Amino acid sequence: MEGRSLPGVTGLNTSYVQGVVDDEKVYLVTNLAENQTQTLLQPQRIWTIGRDRHCGICINDKYLSRRHAAIQYDEDGFYLVDFKSTNGSFVNGERVYETMKLKEGDRIRIGSLSFYFFYNQTSRILPTVAVELLMQLSSRKNCNLDDTLSHVAPGKYLPEITDKAVPFTKNLGLDYQHSHDGFSTEQKSDILDRFFSRVTPS
Questions:
Q1: Number of neighbouring beta carbons within 10 Å of residue 137
Q2: Is the CB of residue 109 less than 8 Å from the CB of residue 90?
Q3: Strand pairing category for 89-91 and 77-82
Q4: How far is it, in rounded angstroms, from Cα 159 to Cα 161?
């Protein structure tokens, strides 16, 4: 069963559990349960694993005990807890008799099932995509430029707009006077002007 493919998930040969700490929220993301990737929230921060249908991660594997093990979150991280299972729980080949703290990349085996554990406690906000790239994206079929621009932080990548910018959006049947996305009519006019100059054959 080690490295088994998950039925219904084409081309995926790796089973995993990812522990995520996001501010005050703690949860697991895994593809062990029901053959699909799921986010599992548990108020006590204890995710039980076993054959019993009441387990948080229920797996139909005859080598698993009904209540085999659990992953528990404490203030200093995630732990694997074995419930004195018949066939045991192992982390990187070492048998877990009570609890063992998990770290990034640990290989866990319970019964005949093997999976990797990943630990995510950091996140970062990526910079805004430049308007030039947004215009390329918006040239795709069924992509609305106005919808794309509504997700851009105004002024971040925009060129300086002069007083002589000509608002032509009304000529295209577009009225941005009541827009609340942070762009002025002149800014949108300039962006649309540059966009159409690129996609319209000369």
A1: 11
A2: yes
A3: unpaired
A4: 6
Q: Which positions ≥6 away from 161 have C-beta within 8 Å?
A: 184, 186, 187, 190
Residue found by looking up tokens 């919808």 in the block? 147
The residue written with tokens 């998990």 in the block is 102
Contacts of residue 174, defined as CB under 8 A and 6 or more positions apart, other chains included, come to 146, 192
The residue type of 193 is D
CA-only gyration radius of the chain, Å: 26
Query: Residues 47, 40: contact at Cβ < 8 Å?
Result: yes
AA identity, residue 9: V
One-letter amino acid of 166: V
Secondary structure class of 106 (helix, strand, coil): strand
**Residue type (1 letter), 62:** K
Q: What is the pLDDT along the chain (202 residues), one digit of tens a residue?
A: 344 444 444 444 689 999 999 988 999 999 997 778 999 999 999 999 999 999 999 999 999 999 999 999 998 999 999 999 999 999 999 999 989 999 999 999 999 999 999 999 888 899 988 888 888 877 765 666 566 566 555 554 444 444 444 444 444 444 444 444 566 777 777 777 766 666 555 5
Sequence-ordered strand ranges (E) for the chain = 16-22, 25-30, 38-41, 46-50, 57-58, 69-74, 77-82, 89-91, 94-95, 99-101, 106-110, 113-120
Strand-strand pairing, 69-74 and 89-91: unpaired
